[in-house]
Amino acid sequence: MTGFIDLYTEAGTFLHRTDPRVKIVAVATLSLLALIMSNLVNLLVLAAVMVVLILFGRASFKKTMLAFSYVFRVMALIVVLWPLFNPGGTPVLFDLWPIKITEPGILAGIATAVRIFCLAAAWYLLMFTTSQRDLVRGLVKMGLRFDFGLSLAMSLRFLPTFSAIVESIKEAQRARGLELDKGNFRKRAKDYVAVLVPTVITALKMADTLSLALQSRAYGARADRTYVRELKMRAGDYVALFIAVAVFAIPATVKYIFSVPL
Questions:
Q1: Per-residue pLDDT tens digits for 86-141
Q2: Cis omega (within 30 of 0) on the bond before 198?
Q3: Burial class (CB in 10 A: 0-12, 13-18, 19+), 190
Q4: Residue 156: how many CA atoms within 13 Å on its side-chain side?
Q5: Of 196, 227, 243, 254, which residue is the least packed, with the fewest Cβ within 10 Å?
Q6: How far apart (Å, rounded) are the C-alpha atoms in residues 166 and 6?
Q7: Domain range summary for the chain, segments of one domain joined by +
Q8: Please, are residues 118 and 34 in contact by the beta-carbon 8 Å criterion?
């Protein structure tokens, strides 16, 4: 059975123990750093750092490969297509009108692909080392409205369940002789109605049950909220926060104040 899976891998590393607010800020700064960098060597160094952090996070190998499999496809597509649409510069390695491939075009394509990897790795690192509960809790502590946070938490919670339900419905229809993967587009779209209808009905039932559960717990009866576990910044979290901000602030200052290319 395939579908959405939770990328979080439970472990006792320093990345898991770090306050989720710090990790959110760190991911944002690493993403911005990848965006302002254009030098391939610098991007490769940043990518290597991201790989080391993922290894320190002890993410599940299966989940890591599943998550990055989509990223690698995009990277390969960029490396192949970028030189075709960006033929400027010299030396020219291949010139057969209208196709012109240059060395700067290839290097720019590789740099863009590495940048995509860095962006994906930063956000995957957050998902690998932060549970859905802590992630939503951190966002709420950073100013996100609680009802928005609750909606996000429920979405993350029920995505795996809903994905499994859809797969179960498809398997049940296949057992009844419905061939979902054969025929032209019109036929397959018509066949998928047999999956869509029970899926919508199941979703409505789940929403109604969830609504009753919230009402039975008097959701919204009080404006103030209490939590089982409060997020508290420790000394190590402040150090990590300082490092995360400095990682972006120093290169940004070097590039935009002192005009040193990165």
A1: 877 778 787 777 778 888 889 999 999 999 999 999 999 998 999 888 888 888 88
A2: no
A3: exposed
A4: 18
A5: 227
A6: 17
A7: 14-130+232-256, 145-216
A8: yes
